[in-house]
């Protein structure tokens, strides 16, 4: 059983063909079936009101054409349905033509969406445990041999970054309690040593640096000499400090075992930093900068410390990446202030 769970409607020929090329057909060749039976529902067809996807008749024809290469061509398409008779007729006709030996109609350029590529990556990570044709993109920590030391890559990056921020910019880690905040975020929040004397403070919340690794196809081991950490945050920090402003820099770690608590944990951290570093200081003006997942956590801070935030924050900058900028809707006056 191989599931490919699309995260949304609106998937196209490119997404389905990409999934076939990367997952469906490699596994099918390795499995080497004696016969292929397709539950030929056309819910994904263009025009289907429930599927809401955009697979063309030519797209279904190409998938049928690929499946014909299995099991000496022993292929059964058992019509199941769909919810638009016109879409079903055109799609089924394209498949039957391929069964009768006609080539499938031409497709446009295959350019899968970002959602498709992320989904296929996760599917390969799961299925590579069971199929040799898929390059392994996981490491089963429960299968490690006795005597092996496992060090989380995020911990390594965190230690390097903390050392670098201090040596280059004299930013110091904010002391946190021994409770949940300390266990989760120690050394991820740093600030200027003279923060309390700064009139302008930048509160910068962003994702952890990006790590680009060159991996070996058969083992998933990293070729260290061709792997890099890409951190675009340093330019922001240098600019802020060169203008004699203060900074609170928060590096958001990767999501771990309980992502449902992620936003709440980050919100509690930002509230702690606000109460102890901003409200308790002589700071007159605060500029909030959120990047990536930092955007949503900052709006949580705004909602929780509304009056204090409205009094001190003079500008909010959101750099959301692929995510939409989150809104603030706790009160009408707060929402109006945030939008302006």
UniProtKB/TrEMBL annotation:
Where is this protein primarily located?
nucleus
Domain Histone deacetylase intervals: 1-99
Identify one Pfam family in the record: Hist_deacetyl
Q: SUPFAM superfamilies, from UniProt?
A: Arginase/deacetylase (SSF52768)
Q: According to its UniProt record, where is this protein located? A: Nucleus
| InterPro entries documented for this protein | Arb2-like_domain, His_deacetylse_dom, His_deacetylse_dom_sf, Ureohydrolase_dom_sf
Extract the Gene3D superfamilies matched here.
Histone deacetylase domain (3.40.800.20)
**GO terms, biological process:** epigenetic regulation of gene expression
Q: Name one GO molecular function term.
A: histone deacetylase activity, hydrolytic mechanism
Q: What EC number(s) is this enzyme filed under?
A: 3.5.1.98
Specify the domain of life of the species encoding this protein.
Eukaryota
Family statement: Belongs to the histone deacetylase family. HD type 2 subfamily.
Name by which UniProt lists this protein:
histone deacetylase
**What is the originating organism of this protein?**
Funneliformis caledonium
Top-level taxonomy? Eukaryota, Fungi, Fungi incertae sedis, Mucoromycota, Glomeromycotina
